[in-house]
Amino acid sequence: MLMLEKSFPLSSKMRISVDHEKLGVFSQSHVKFYLKYSSFVFRALKKPSFQNFLHWMLKKEKIEEDAVRTVHVKVLPFRRKNGKCLAGTCNTSRGRIRIYPKTMKFCQTFKQKFGRNTLLVYAGNRARAALIHELLHLKYAEDEKTVRELSEDYFLTCTQKQPNKSSRAFFIYTMIFHAKISGEKTPPSGSNESSKRLKLNEACLRASGVLSKPC
Ligand SMILES: [Zn+2]
C-alpha cells in the first residue's frame, strides 16, 4: 500500500497545518478535539483508493497535478464574517488548497443525533467533497455553478468507487449536497482579521446544504 501511495503526487503535497497564534483562543479540550479531527481527515484524504480517484478525476478534467502545490488540512475551523464555516479554499494562482474542519459544537450535535460512526463517515466524506470541489476550482476558477455541479457528480462517483461502500454512503452524499438545515446566524468571532488576509476569491466551498449551516 505504501508503494502505491508514493505514485500519487497529490498525496505527497498534503500536510496537517495549524495556525499557532490561533491556538490560544481555543480551550485545551477543543485543541485536542481538532487535532484528532485533522489527523482523521488527513488519513481519509490520503487513502490510496481516494488518491486514485483524484488522479483519475484530474486526468479526466485535464488538470495538471502540478497545478496543486499544497493541500493543507487545517486543524482549526475557519469562520467567515457571516458566521458560516468554510469547508475549504483554493488559491488558484498559488495552487494552494486548504481544507477546514466542522466545529466541535457541530460535531457534538451531529454525534448525538446520528452516532459516532456516522460522524466519522461524515467528516471523512465532507473533507473529500471539499477537496474535490477545491481541485475543480483550479480549472473553473470563479465559475461556482459549474464547480458545484461537477463536485456533486464527482463525489457521487467517488462514493460508488469506495471499496467499502456502505448503505451510509448515499445518506452521506444526500446530507452533504442536499440537506437544507436552516439555522440561526451565529455572529462571527475572532477570526475577522485572518478572513481579510485570506482573500477568498478562492473562497467558498460549501458543498451546499450542510456546509452552509452556521456552526
Ligand atoms: Zn467553490
Secondary structure blueprint with pairings:
Blueprint (H helix, E strand, L loop, with lengths): L1 H5 L2 H4 L1 E4 L2 H4 L4 H19 L1 H13 L9 E5 L13 E4 L4 E4 L4 H11 L1 H25 L3 H18 L6 H10 L14 H7 L17
Parallel strand pairs: 1-2, 2-4
Antiparallel strand pairs: 3-4
Helix pairs in contact: 4-7, 6-7, 7-8, 7-9, 8-9
Bound molecules: zinc ion.
Task: Name the features.
single chain, alpha/beta, 215 residues, globular, disordered C terminus
Describe this structure in words.
It is built from ten helices and four strands. It has helices spanning 2-6, 9-12, 20-23, 28-46, 48-60, 104-114, 116-140, 144-161, 168-177, 192-198; strands spanning 14-17, 70-74, 88-91, 96-99. Strand 3 and strand 4 (96-99) form a beta hairpin. It is globular, with a radius of gyration of 16 Å. The termini are far apart. Residues 180-215 have low confidence and may be disordered. Bound molecules: zinc ion. Zinc ion binds at residues 133, 137, 144, 147, 204-205.
